[in-house]
Structures are given as C-alpha cells and as structure tokens.
Amino acid sequence: MNLKKVTCRGLVVSMLALSFQTAGAGMIGADQAAPGTAQTDRAMVLETLARADTSSQLQAMGVDPRQARDRVAAMSDQEVTQLAADIRQAPAGADGGTVLAVLVIAAAIWYFAFRR
Amino acid sequence: MTGPQPCFEARLARACRLLLAAAIVVVASGCAQMVPQTVALRTGWPAGVPQSHQVDGVPFFPQDEYQCGPAALATVLAFTGVPVTPEPLVSQVYVPARRGSLQLEMLAAARRHGRVSYVLAPRYGDLLREVAAGNPVLVLQDVGALAQQWHYAVVNGFDYPSGTVYLRSGTVAKLEMPFTAFERSWMKSGYWAMVVTPPDRIPATATEDAWVNAVLGLARVGTQEQVTTAFATALERWPENLAAAVGLANQFHARGSLARATEVLREARRRHPGSAIVANNLAQVLSEQGQQREALTLIEQAASDPSNPFASEIRSTREAIVERIKRGGATPR
User: What ipTM was reported for this prediction?
Assistant: First the structure.
C-alpha cells in the first residue's frame, strides 16, 4: 500500500517533469501553434493529471509501471484525455475469443441435442 | 357473378406484385445499409486509384493468442524499415486486463519507433488509396461470430474485379475477404484505420491539420533528427502551416543551429505577421545571436497586444532581452 503510494507520487512528479519539455528556454512550443491546441495553464494542469490518471489506470490493468509511464508519454494531450475517459470501454483488439465462441456453440449443441 | 372474380384476381396479383416489389426494395436497401460504402464504390470508385493493387514486401508475423495488436503493428512498422518483431511491442501496447490492445496505444507505440502514425478518414476510398500508394493499412475489425470480437489486421492489397480484400490477419498470411464482408467487420469500429510512415513521407490521404497533429505526436518521443525531418517535410508540403514552421525552428534552435532557426522564423513572420509565437521565438533566437535591438523591437510589438494568450512567455522573453542588453553595456546592436 505504502509502496503503491510512493510509486504514484513518483509518477506524478515525473509526469510533471515530462509535460514541460515542449521547447527550449524562451521558445514557445509548436503544439501551441496548432489549431485548437493552444493551452491555458489550467488545461495544462488538467492534462498533466489526466496523464498520471491514465498511467495509473494502465498499471491497475496489469501494465508494468515504468512501461505505463512511457506509453502515456508517447501520446498527445488530447489522446491522453480521451484514453483516461474510456480506457475500460474502448475496443481492445485481441482475437482470443474464438475459444469462448466454440465453447458456447458446443454447449448449445449439447443442450439442444441431448437434453431434450 | 363472374364479373368481380377476375377483377379480384387481378387486384390480388397486382397487390402481390406490389408486395414483392416492396420486399425487394426493402431487402435491397437493407443490403445497402449493411455495406453502404461498398455499394457507394460501385458508382463512385475513387479517382486515380487502380482497381487492383498489392503492396509487395509486407512482412507477416503470425500472432500468438490475444496478440493481434503487436503482430499487426510489427507488420506495418517492419514494412517501413523498423527492425522490430511483435514480442517487444507486447509491453508497449498490450493491456493484460483487457486482453487486447487499445487504438490510441497503437498510435502512440508507432511513434516510439520513429514513425508518424496517422488515422485515416473513415472511408473505404481512403483505405484503397493508401494501399494503392504503397502504404499497408492497419485496421480494427469486429470479427466475432456471436459476441463482439475486436481484431487488428493489415490490409495489403485489393482486387475490385473479383471483389477481394487481401489481409495479413492473425495466423493467416494471405486472408482473402470479400469487399462486403470486410466492410461489415470494419464498419463496427467506425471504419478505424491507421498507417505509419517514416517522417519524410506523407500518406496519400493526409490532410494538413491532421498530419501536422500526427507530427506533433511524434515530436513528443522522436529523436531530434526524426522530428526535424517530419516538420521540414510538412512545411515543404504546406508552406503556410504555422505549427510546422514553429516546430522546425524549435528543432534547429535546440540543436544550436540558430541561423537556420532564424531563417525559418523570418519566413514564418512574413507569412504570419500577427503570430505572437513567431514574434516571441524570433526575438529569442535573435537575442541569443546578439541582435538585441531587433529582438527588443519585435518583443515590444508583441507585448503591446494585451489579449494574446502568451503574455507571460512574452514578458519573460522581454525581461531576458533587457537583461542581456544591460549586461552587454548600453550599446545594443
């Protein structure tokens, strides 16, 4: 529990460090010049939190903590916010469910052929 | 009493014919709704796209269970020259609790390998155009027979005369799907499709804003060289694009090529005289090269606009310039 807390704090700090890497000293970043992405300080703070949130959600879903941070770091702010919102509902390409389908069909055949 | 009889029969026959016609219309329109884009292709084949094309040299990685995401991603990455196999990608996209990989993570992971990932517009025509241009397209399908079953695959060819889409899919190196069946599986993901390209190659269907956003995504994790190339390529195609110009100049600045940064920013200033970002960055670069007088003029112009959202950045740039002038004596160049 304590370890988790420490990890979380560490991640929040590293997220903050990561999100301010946009441009060299005195230069305004290119992402600020793209239409619809100019950020207020408030939006930046919210997106930083979304980053930490998304990263900890990924960890809760079984992703290694360091990997979770790197994975989130490669996303744009908009993507992070989007993922934080629907990480549990978004389609996850898998193709492992054929086993389930086969089981369901087998059960149905068994039920209709032998139980009646 | 024979009079009404034929009349009734005729009426019945006519009613039957009407019903049949109505049924055909309903069925036909039902079909059209099931695969609207395939139907639309019949009358509106995308201009300039051949009816048949196969991309050569697309590798194939048969997937392990649940690992279609890493396998499909490795396919498109390896095609663009990234030496990668599915295994190292598992830790970059796979979510154990979901037993699959999420679309946004597929996009993000490609950037970590120095490629720009671009989501296509949800159109069959755009998918075909990309394949015809030599870009294999990674798609998300629902291939479940009973329950929903998300699956990533790579379209690497099509043949319209025989109505076939060719895919690298799961454990099948050359899966052939009819255009209609493919659309039905693909439409459930909202026609989601992506391509990955090296930073110097813009996909055939890319639009300006979407592409520059994709490049900004790469800029988060790419190497300086990759990012510089990506911004330069975007700026060459769309010389008016502000973000690409600012991005390119910032890359030059970060590498210490101040003269080249200045050149890009001067051109950007000519095209976007009102941009506070360009004014601020140009002032900064000029000041770093010792041209304090021009820098100060520029930054004061920018600072005089109270409504711009970068007021605090501009203020600190101005302070830095003033500081340099003080330190350098009273004779700014």
Answer: 0.76
Helix, strand counts (H, E) of chain B: 14, 9
Classified as helix, coil or strand, B136 is coil
Compare CB distances from B284 to A27, A30, A40 and report the shortest one's residue. A27
Q: Which residue has the tokens 């025509």?
A: B125
**CB contact, 8 Å: B317 with chain A?**
yes
B254 touching A, CB under 8 A?
yes
Q: How far is it, in rounded angstroms, from Cα B267 to Cα B230?
A: 18
Which of B246, B278, B312 has the most A C-beta neighbours within 10 Å, making it the best mutation to test the interface with A? B246
Query: Is residue B74 within 8 Å of residue B61, measured between CB atoms?
Result: yes
pLDDT digits (tens, 9 = 90+) for B106-117: 999 999 999 999
> What's B121's DSSP letter?
P
User: What's the CA gap between B80 and B134, in Å, rounded?
Assistant: 10
C-alpha span between B33 and B91 (Å, rounded) = 39
Instruction: Please list, in sequence order, all residues whose beta carbon lies within 8 angstroms of the beta carbon of residue A55, skipping any fewer than 6 positions away.
Output: A11, A15, A65, A68, A69, A71, A72
Cβ of B109 and A100 within 8 Å? no
- Packing angle between helix B103-111 and helix B68-79, nearest 10 degrees? 40
Secondary structure of A2-62 as H, E, C letters: HHHHHHHHHHHHHHHHHHCCCCCCCCCCHHHCCCCCCCCHHHHHHHHHHHHHHHHHHHHCC
Rounded distance, CA B323 to CA B103, Å?
48
The whole-angstrom separation of Cα A50 and Cα A42 is 12
φ, ψ (nearest 5 deg) of residue B273: -60, -20
Nearest-angstrom CA–CA distance, B65 and B242: 45
Beta bridge partners of residue B176, listed in sequence order: B166
Indicate the range of A68-82, A90-104, B29-43, B220-234 predicted with least confidence: A90-104
What separation in angstroms does the CA of B137 have from each of B61, B66, B87, B140, B149?
15, 20, 21, 10, 19
What is this structure's pTM? 0.81
In sequence order, which residues have a C-beta less than 8 Å from that of residue B57 and are 6 or more positions away?
Answer: B79
Q: Report how far apart, in Å, the C-alpha atoms of B121 and of each of B172, B186, B189, B223, B265 are.
A: 27, 13, 13, 28, 32
Q: What pLDDT tens digit does each residue of chain A (116 aa) get?
A: 466 666 656 655 555 554 444 456 789 999 888 876 556 667 777 778 888 889 999 999 999 999 999 999 999 888 998 888 888 888 888 765 555 666 777 788 888 777 76
- Test mutation, B61, B68, B73, B102, chain A, max A CBs within 10 A: B102
